[in-house]
Amino acid sequence: GEGDLHGEVVVLGSGPGGYTAAFRAADLGRKVVLIERYASLGGVCLNVGCIPSKALLHAARVVSETEEMSDHGISFAAPEVDADKLRRWKDGVVGQLTGGLAGLAKQRNVTVVQGEGRFTGPNAIAVTGEGGTRNVTFDQCIIAAGSQAVKLSFIPHDDPRVVTSTGALELDPIPETMLVLGGGIIGFEMATVYQGLGARVTVVEMMDQILPGADKDMVKPLHKRMEKRLAAIRLKTKVTAVEAKSDGLHVTFEDEKGDTSTETFDKMLVAVGRTPNGGKIDAERAGVAVTDRGFIEVDHQQRTNVPHIFAIGDVVGQPMLAHKAVHEGKVAAEVAAGEKRAFDARVIPSVAYTDPEVAWVGLTEAQAKAQGIKYHKGVFPWAASGRALSNSRSEGVTKLLFDPEDDRVIGGAITGTSAGDLISEVALAIEMGADATDLAHTIHPHPTLSETVNFAAEMFEGTITDLM
Ligand code: FAD
């Protein structure tokens, strides 16, 4: 091969965690090698996750809002979807970002090695690519190997009509009928996409609500809107069998009473969770402990049980989110460079980029109740927001939770258009220890959706009482 290569810091995996760690380490003056099995940098998030899904969700939202304008006096013809062109646009967005990353790696003299990396010892990784196997040695290593979609043994995943999120993003084809198995964030986002593009979509979820991590009251506006657009949302229902036949996928459902029924679909997305890649890198050869489920345990400085090897992102555990991976990547690179740094974020926001969006951060009411934590709340319904009404999207809600001792913000949730952007203010409030008065007395621009955070704090303080 091309001979041995040495990196002071070697990063395994180029997703949001890996590229962030590699760039930070290089900026701190280290000689960095970044190992990635695919030709394109950016991992799941850029290639087959966050970014392509958001491009398609944008398209779906434009379609649904355009349709709804007919209620307000402007009508358009029914949309004509050119799946090839839409796919090319989405791939172009991805390409712009992944190409940008390659440029940034070059600028920083980060050596990118393409191939599948596996540990061969505590200071070495063998990288197998097209040109053979190359030995990469390191002083320190940061594992950022990410995760992949869970497949279920009783489902015929070999059939091209059965896809995970990666296949679903290909839009090949947009079917007439589709089943989405799993009403979590990824499943419900993809259901929103396919519905917007014209498919009749059924979502099936085992729990008693969609987006199981979010509070029920926050999910309600989304459920209500999408119930009308989707073929069905089946809660407390399991899929127990899938038979691939020539006329479609014959799916057997079992509801909470144990009653079964069968329905046929043209396509099926399995979105039942993601599993970490920790078990596939021969970590034991480096002495790095991996759990039975494939996670790598780390301390507050992202160190594994082997002090010169760090791990970050999806491979270290929940929540499996890009912004968590990025934050951990910076911590790992800085600790590796000898800086005093630790992961000490108070909160990590969660967002479903559905239509409307559902976002939450810190404590949820469900968690508070389960853990016996006392709280006060301020709730502002968007039906009283001038901006939400002008946008013709007044189904949203903004909710803040406060510590009864000192009125500090301890949690918040927003449902509505742009909720994912709006939730950052609540995250900042929690990080800074802001209280209800801080949010109520901060002048927010009018008319904006951001005012709903201001109003929710005022509702709690009792300074606005007559809006509802
Ligand atoms: P990954 O992005 O998984 O990257 C790991 C990289 O390591 C991959 O490129 C892989 O090829 C490489 N790799 C693994 N093993 C090896 C090896 N042995 N040798 C060489 N290379 C290897 N998160 C959000 O925050 N917001 C969103 O909107 C969002 N949307 C999503 C939508 C979808 C459809 C999916 C599937 C996920 C979404 N996520 C979202 C989750 C997000 O993509 C992940 O949390 C994030 O990508 C994790 O980053 P990471 O760096 O840990 O790993």
TrEMBL record:
One of its GO terms (molecular function) is flavin adenine dinucleotide binding. The active site is at 446 (proton acceptor). GO terms for biological process: 2-oxoglutarate metabolic process. It catalyses: N(6)-[(R)-dihydrolipoyl]-L-lysyl-[protein] + NAD(+) = N(6)-[(R)-lipoyl]-L-lysyl-[protein] + NADH + H(+). Its EC number is 1.8.1.4. Keywords: Disulfide bond, FAD, Flavoprotein, Lipoyl, NAD, Nucleotide-binding, Oxidoreductase, Redox-active center. This is Dihydrolipoyl dehydrogenase. It comes from Palleronia sediminis. The gene is lpdA.
